[in-house]
Amino acid sequence: MKKKANISSNYVIWVDQKKAIISSVDSNGSVSTETIKSDVQFQVRFKGETSSSTRLFSTTVDNQKHAQNRHHNQLLAYLKEVEKRITKAATIIILGPADTKYELHKVLEKKKALQSTNVEIKTADKMKPTEVSAFLKARFVK
Description:
The protein is an alpha/beta fold. It has one domain: eRF1 domain 2 (Nucleotidyltransferase, domain 5, 2-Layer Sandwich). The protein is about 30% helix and about 30% strand. It contains three helices and seven strands, in the order E-E-E-E-E-H-E-H-E-H. The protein has a five-stranded mixed sheet, with helices on both faces. Helix 1 packs across helix 2. The longest helix has 21 residues, at about 65-85.
């Protein structure tokens, strides 16, 4: 019986709420970069809407909580889509300008296959796919 080669990859992920750029290098030295667009909606307003509350019989219901829950669920679905693209990682570096990088770290911690993976979180401004690839090459490719 043949054993499959245990090829692990190193990942650099730049993430914010609009898109994620995943760049990886495997043990053979091949580099790949992928961009994932987010479907998270920001401040959805409907035509004719004047306030964030609605009347329900004799009480007023605030829609802000529902909007926050909808935004959180959309963000979680987006981060899980990013998490699905990561397999057999040796090291993961998460870059990003806001708190989304910490949310992604929480999602990655829950995946059993990645629990023994070394994860680093760094703050970075907006980056292009070529910049993420250059960061990956500078860090992991010799």
